[in-house]
Design brief:
This protein has 128 residues and is mainly alpha-helical. 53% of the residues lie in helices and 6% in strands.
Length: 128
């Protein structure tokens, strides 16, 4: 999210949403380190607390983990965390949903292709 003069400063939710978008787009992946909270606060022109709240929100969703003295990292959902639980349940749910959406899009593409063939051949559509 770029800030420009006259626009309101982003909230912690806005910052978290930007990071989620980077996860979905593949710009950030499992194991990647997020920028230092201070650097991100400068980039967004917000307080350090807002960035920390954004990171906390992402952590509560199971998307990132903060390690004292090391930084904040994107969770690899295939790896268990230190407590032995499966990491990144929200990330896994998102990946599953995206997979289902891709399949639906593929099916819709197949249907459009069949309809275009019918229209181009001048045939009537089969009754359903």
């Amino acid at each position: 999210m770029e800030k420009s003069p006259g626009t309101p400063r982003p909230t912690a939710k806005d910052i978290a949403a930007d990071i989620r978008q980077q996860l979905v787009s593949g710009d950030l992946g499992p194991g990647d380190q997020l920028p230092a909270a201070r650097d991100l606060a400068k980039r967004y022109g917000v307080t350090l607390v807002k960035v920390q709240n954004a990171y906390r929100e992402l952590s509560e969703e199971g998307l990132v983990v903060s390690q004292q003295g090391r930084g904040t990292f994107v969770i690899d959902p295939s790896q268990p965390d230190a407590g032995g639980r499966r990491g990144g349940s929200a990330f896994v749910a998102l990946a599953t949903e995206m997979s289902a959406m891709h399949e639906t899009i593929r099916q819709l593409g197949d249907r459009i292709e069949r309809l275009e063939q019918i229209v181009n051949s001048g045939e009537s559509a089969p009754a359903q």
